[in-house]
Specification:
Elements: H1 2-29, H2 45-51, H3 54-85, H4 92-104, H5 107-118, H6 124-130, H7 147-172, H8 177-184, H9 189-200, H10 202-217, H11 221-226, H12 238-248, H13 252-286
Helix pairs in contact: 1-13, 2-13, 3-7, 3-10, 4-7, 5-7, 7-10, 10-13, 12-13
């Protein structure tokens, strides 16, 4: 109790700062603020301008494509890696470190490395052609209709390891007697994981999904490091749109409106998860 009282001022300060900045952004989003904040009220005109901006629509479409592919690929790859390590393979500790290491690397470093690797003149394409395959082509990073997939590749490489760690913890919580019973009944290993283990990984998968979904909404560093939103606006994402309008285009009101929309998106993603956790906790208390 004493420790909680001692931490209360810091908790209230942090909470006040977070809530205060959110409320301030919402207030600015309904003003005519440009370079400097203004204390007027223009209703939802900033939001109307936002949804009439073609660049915003492109960024949202890119985020949707990135989000679906990124979350799906990370969950599938993370599950496969977790199942691999769950076999108690030799060197499991080393493999776990190798798979998880990319998550410790900043998105800026990841973006720069993958930018070099995907550069048609320096990276994979150039290397393969030098090996005697002159017709090999892998120039997605300079193609407007393919560049978003290169960002997915880099982001999946970095984030799939943490999904592996979460799902592996879930796998290690499954009763091993179930596998012994399945072996007695002649159930193949793949069917055991698909029909018995996977349904028990619901909480771990839910946690992984929330982590990935929040990462999707705020994706910024890897885009700037790899493509700067280009070619053109082909890899533009909402976070970059907000930062460009906030600092580059001196449009504080429009940037605040966009950030409020993204905040509501995050809350829409988290609210069902919070509700499900609360329901599970309530059931656990009454059981």
């Amino acid at each position: 109790m004493t420790a909680q009282i001692a931490l209360l001022p810091m908790a209230l300060t942090a909470l006040g700062v977070y809530i205060g900045t959110v409320l301030w952004s919402m207030r600015i989003s309904v003003s005519s603020s440009r370079i400097f904040p203004r204390d007027d009220f223009v209703g939802l005109s900033q939001y109307q301008r936002l949804f009439e901006t073609e660049r915003w629509h492109v960024s949202v479409q890119n985020l949707a494509v990135f989000g679906v592919l990124f979350v799906a690929a990370c969950l599938v790859l993370g599950l496969l890696l977790a199942v691999l390590l769950d076999q108690h393979v030799r060197g499991e500790g080393v493999l776990r470190t190798v798979f998880l290491y990319p998550y410790a690397v900043s998105f800026v470093a990841t973006g720069l490395v993958w930018q070099w690797m995907l550069n048609p003149e320096l990276g994979i394409q150039s290397t393969v052609r030098a090996l005697g395959f002159p017709d090999f082509k892998f120039d997605w990073i300079v193609q407007q209709d393919q560049v978003i997939y290169t960002i997915v590749i880099a982001a999946v490489w970095q984030a799939s390891g943490v999904v592996m760690a979460v799902l592996l913890a879930g796998l290690r919580g499954v009763d091993e007697s179930l596998w012994h019973a399945a072996r007695v009944d002649g159930v193949p290993r793949w069917r055991y994981y698909l029909s018995i283990v996977l349904p028990q990984l619901g909480p771990a998968i839910g946690t992984s999904f929330v982590l990935l979904a929040v990462g999707v909404v705020k994706v910024f560093d890897v885009v700037v490091a790899m493509t700067q939103g280009g070619p053109g606006n082909a890899s533009e994402v909402p976070a970059k749109f907000i930062m460009d309008n906030l600092f580059g285009r001196a449009n504080v009101g429009l940037a605040s409106a966009a950030s409020t929309v993204m905040l509501l998106t995050v809350l829409a993603l988290l609210t069902p998860w919070w509700y499900a956790r609360a329901v599970q906790a309530k059931k656990a208390r009454h059981s």
